[in-house]
Design a protein that fits this description.
The chain is an alpha+beta fold. It contains three helices and seven strands.
């Protein structure tokens, strides 16, 4: 990373094993399903044992587009048991297998979806929030009709 142009925010997602990441005097122990962020412009130390991981490398400029300065700092952690973190990691698994076949416009949409899911997983106002009693997702067809497609979960 040190030899690349630009600044990056990296989210290390632990798939199996254990890793300890230290940056800016912050040390985070990461277990399976957990994730930690680090800044490519600063020195970091990584110690691992039998590790399988995925790294999401995001240009700082992309984070600036979505207000990342407020929450994108070294040591930000995502707990593996958080539903928002699980959604992000499941999405990335799917994206990894389909990315080579996506059109350019689909890649742009996938980029935006990745950033939105990361925001949902990282922002403090979404951490440890109890689920709503019922979430209602509705979409109105573009034809302008009053028919709605809805999904309700309880």
């Amino acid at each position: 990373m040190a030899d690349t142009d630009g600044e990056f925010f990296v989210v290390l997602i632990n798939r199996a094993g254990r890793e300890t990441v230290t940056q800016d005097d912050i040390t985070v122990n990461v277990g399976p399903g957990d994730a930690v962020a680090w800044d490519s412009t600063k020195a970091a130390r990584f110690v691992w044992e039998k590790l399988s991981k995925r790294s999401l490398i995001i240009p700082r400029a992309a984070l600036d587009e979505v207000g990342g300065k407020a929450w994108a700092h070294p040591g930000v952690t995502l707990r593996g048991d958080s539903p928002a973190s699980q959604l992000l990691t499941s999405y990335l698994d799917t994206l990894a297998s389909s990315l080579p076949r996506l059109s350019q416009s689909a890649v742009a949409a996938a980029r935006n979806a990745t950033l939105e899911l990361l925001i949902g997983a990282v922002r403090p106002d979404t951490v440890d929030t109890p689920p709503r009693a019922a979430a209602r997702l509705c979409a109105t067809p573009s034809t302008g009709s009053s028919n709605r497609i809805c999904s309700t979960s309880t």
